[in-house]
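Q: Entry one of two.
A:
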Amino acid sequence: MSNLDTRPDVLVCGGRRDVPAEPVHEVLPGRMVPLGESTMVRRLLPTLGRRLVGAWCFLDHYGPDDIADRPGMQVAPHPHTGLQTVSWLLSGTIQHRDSLGHEQLLAPGQLGLMTAGHGIAHSEQSPVSHPALLHGAQLWVALPERYREVAPAFDHHPDLPVVTDRGLAATVLLGTLAGATSPGTTYSPLVGADVTLDPGADVRLPLEPDFEYAMLSASGAAEIDATELAPGALMYLGTDRREVRLRAESGARLLLLGGEPFDEQIVMWWNFVGRSGDEIATYREQWNTGDRFGVVHGYQGDRLIAPTLPAAPLKPRGRTR
């Protein structure tokens, strides 16, 4: 998925300086931004208050949207470097195409994991014939220095492990949760899980004390350690947790993100993750001139053009704004 801002900020993120050494309950503000021709998303990472949760550096939550009589998601070919994209659907279908030649229809419960590494381009769109509802999340994971130039790849995992407990079912997207490990490739210690709570559920989910965590309520209201989390909101949970208590009177669908605090500083701009402004400028030039990223075949339409870089110099701001 693309950051389609025409004037995207340059963000410098990373390091442990702003990671609390204790559990917290911080509700982070999101903002509505357009995605492609007909989709609006809630951008929850990066946001005012926090730029990273572990290596998770970007989170868009969209829907549920009624697209029965609309084209749905239409995101033209665009590039990525230095990150992995995680596509996760709760309702609907999305057609993925990339410059490696992969073409994959993604459905709910299936993990679409694209490793950009040195550089890749892809498009995402609702098929011409598609379900009435579209609801999901798109996430990025920053690659550490050792792996950020890894060869690009795309993996489709239709079968993922599920952790169950009294009224809870947690599908493990990436990493390990409660002894269940996703088949998705990771390059730093992290976890992602889709947590469904039945009406009346009151359970404790085991966590890693060295990780920092956040939870998104994709649908339904829930209580996180007796603190209310409204639908569409993201709550940052801090570190030093061995478990989290989850309650839902009427049922809820939550997305759990966690990982070891990301030590390295990264520069994010548009759809690139790098280590300096000069690198970002090089990536932008290479994309606009047709170098480095390859060609996405099968998409009917023009590719995106990278916007103009901001004139202001980079200002390192750590993990929070």
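Q: Entry two of two.
A:
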Amino acid sequence: MLANDVISTGRSQAETAQIRLSLQMRYDELTVEYDQAVAQSQVLRLVEVGDTAGDDQADSGTKTAERDTAQSLLRTILDRRAQFEHALARLADGSYGWCEGCTKPIPVERLEIFPSATSCVTCQQTRERRAA
């Protein structure tokens, strides 16, 4: 372990490796979840295409709602996976654990609960208020 590693990031190489492993595992889980959701969406489309005879408005509406829900799930998984990909990139460049807004350290407790966090609670609350 080099002295610079601990000073610049506040973490040892072993801690960084553990964080990387944890982030990568969650990224991989989301990838599997995405692949499964894509497969389910394809099955849903095949059933929908093959089973439209005799559909009334309610049936069509139900199928549309199911399709929209499946698409929403896919977008959510992709967004979460992108967050973990960004966290891995930040870990690699040494900026993981530092707020992108104010550049202060993000509390360890926050990172334990939300490992892909890019901002401290204060900056996140400010961002959410502006978006509302």
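A: Comment on entry two: The chain has five helices and no strands. The CA atoms of residues 90 and 96 lie 5 Å apart.
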